[in-house]
Structure formats: C-alpha cells, structure tokens
C-alpha cells in the first residue's frame, strides 16, 4: 500500500514523475491499465517540452532542437507505484515520436509513423490525445490527416498551440480563433484550444485541468 494514494486531482502534477518504459513497437506496450493521455504532433513542435513543463520537471522527457528526438512511445507516471497487482498509477502521460520529419532514414520514419498511428487508433485506455500545433505555423496538412484519423477512430483530442512566446499576443488570439473555426465541425475535437508556452510557463494550468477531466472520463 502507498501512504497517500493520489487521485486525479491537481496535486498529481506536483508529485515526482518517473519514466517507466520506451515502446518501440505495439507488442511492447504495457498491459492496458491506467488512463493514458498522449502528446502528438509534428516533429519539434514541443511535445516533450510541454510534458516537462506540465510536470515542472525539466529534463524528464528528452528534448532537442534537432527534430526526431523522441523515437519511441515514452511512458511517464507519478512515482511510488510498483505497477504490480492493484498498485497502479492513476494516470500515464505518453510522449510520442513526431510526424512529418523528412530528414531521418525513410524506414525509421515509416516505423515511427506506423507506431504512432497504430497506437492512436487502437489503444482502449487512451483517453485523450493532445495534438500540438506550432503557433508559428498553424494546422498543416499532416496535422489535418491525424485529425481525420482521430475523428474516424472516435478518439478524443484537444488542440494545443505551442511556442506562443514566439509570436505576438494579438497573433496568438487570432490563431486561436482561426484554429477553433477549423476544428468546429470535427466530431472528436474538444471545442477549446489552449495557447501554451513551455518556455514562459503559459497555459499550463488550463492543460493540466483538461487532462484531469479527460482522464476521469468527464
Ligand atoms: N520558444 C520556445 N521554444 C520551445 C517551446 N517548447 C519547445 N521549444 C523548443 O523547441 C525544440 C523542440 O522541442 P521538443 O520538446 O524536443 O519537441 P518535440 O515535439 O518533442 O520533438 P520530437 O521529439 O523531435 O518530435 C526545443 O529546442 C525546445 O527548446 C516553447 O514553448 N517556446
Ligand atoms: Mg520529443
């Protein structure tokens, strides 16, 4: 037994989190258990940085200026759970390889892309996908393809704009409303867009709260 079992409440993000597993292919996924929240998006959009910012643990998920840093499905959970029997964490965050990265060897890119797509459409415990969009670029073709897939598979997703510190506040507001317009008719899209900056710690509480709601199935 753990001393204080954390439930799905804000304090969960204040605990120390740990990396438990890197999954290079579907057959290495952990058994389906705790609710999972995944972070998807183009290469270099800031997925790993957002996870570190949400958990206030810089360096937990590995980040890099070079696209293609994250190459497996990386599982992070709050510490203090053995994972044995009933002693499971209440939530797992899953950092994903990016898509749309053309410079890596083709067979590697194909492998990551297949893994990302297979996971997104076939994981029962996946409660929501955070789909990250670079505030400098907005929704691009590959992002719309992923939204099509999630809509078709009826997997809930929420769009998060990243690197909001790189554009001016009025441009952030404009992009937010343009993005909302673009997703309005998409059946699996959560009808709110959050602008974030991992660098400046902006928009994080909003994302944390939404994750807890999604994980609780509310
Ligand atoms: N200015 C600014 N830079 C950011 C922000 N978030 C991430 N970055 C930078 O963007 C680069 C990519 O960040 P990562 O978090 O590694 O991106 P990723 O989406 O995990 O990338 P892959 O794993 O390669 O797909 C790094 O140099 C980060 O420092 C942000 O909010 N603001
Ligand atoms: Mg990454």
UniProtKB/TrEMBL annotation:
Instruction: Please indicate if the UniProt record lists Ribosomal protein as a keyword.
Output: no
- Which cellular component, as a GO term, is one annotated location? cytosol
Q: Coiled-coil intervals in this record? A: none
UniProt cross-references to Pfam families, sorted A to Z: MMR_HSR1
A single GO BP term for this record reads: division septum assembly
Molecular function per GO? GTP binding; metal ion binding
Checking SUPFAM superfamilies in the record gives: P-loop containing nucleoside triphosphate hydrolases
Cofactor annotation: Mg(2+)
**Which superkingdom heads the taxonomic lineage of this protein's source?**
Bacteria
Q: Which positions make up the signal peptide?
A: none
Where the record annotates domain EngB-type G, the positions are: 33-217
So where does this one cross the membrane? none
Q: Sorted alphabetically, which keywords does the UniProt record give?
A: Cell cycle, Cell division, GTP-binding, Magnesium, Metal-binding, Nucleotide-binding, Septation
Q: Which Gene3D superfamilies match?
A: P-loop containing nucleotide triphosphate hydrolases (3.40.50.300)
Q: Which family does it belong to?
A: Belongs to the TRAFAC class TrmE-Era-EngA-EngB-Septin-like GTPase superfamily. EngB GTPase family.
Q: What does this protein do?
A: Necessary for normal cell division and for the maintenance of normal septation.
How is this protein named in the record? Probable GTP-binding protein EngB
**Origin organism of this chain?**
Tianweitania sediminis
Please name the taxonomic classification of the source.
Bacteria, Pseudomonadati, Pseudomonadota, Alphaproteobacteria, Hyphomicrobiales
């Amino acid at each position: 037994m753990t001393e204080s079992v954390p439930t799905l409440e804000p304090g969960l993000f204040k605990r120390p989190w740990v990396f438990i597993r890197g999954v290079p292919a579907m057959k290495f996924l952990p058994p389906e258990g705790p609710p999972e929240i995944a972070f998807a998006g183009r290469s270099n959009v800031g997925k790993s940085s957002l996870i570190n910012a949400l958990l206030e643990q810089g360096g937990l998920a590995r980040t890099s200026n070079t696209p293609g840093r994250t190459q497996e499905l990386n599982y992070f959970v709050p510490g203090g759970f053995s994972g044995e029997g009933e002693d499971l964490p209440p939530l797992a965050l899953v950092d994903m390889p990016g898509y749309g990265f053309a410079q890596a060897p083709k067979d590697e890119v194909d492998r990551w892309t297949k893994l990302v797509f297979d996971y997104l459409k076939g994981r029962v415990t996946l409660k929501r996908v955070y789909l990250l969009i670079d505030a400098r670029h907005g929704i691009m073709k590959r992002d719309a393809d992923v939204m099509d897939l999630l809509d078709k598979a009826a997997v809930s997703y929420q769009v998060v704009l990243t690197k909001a510190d790189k554009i001016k506040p009025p441009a952030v507001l404009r992009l937010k409303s343009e993005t909302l317009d673009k997703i309005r008719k998409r059946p699996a899209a959560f009808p709110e867009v959050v602008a974030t900056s991992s660098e400046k710690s902006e928009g994080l509480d909003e994302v944390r709260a939404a994750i807890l709601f999604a994980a609780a199935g509310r």
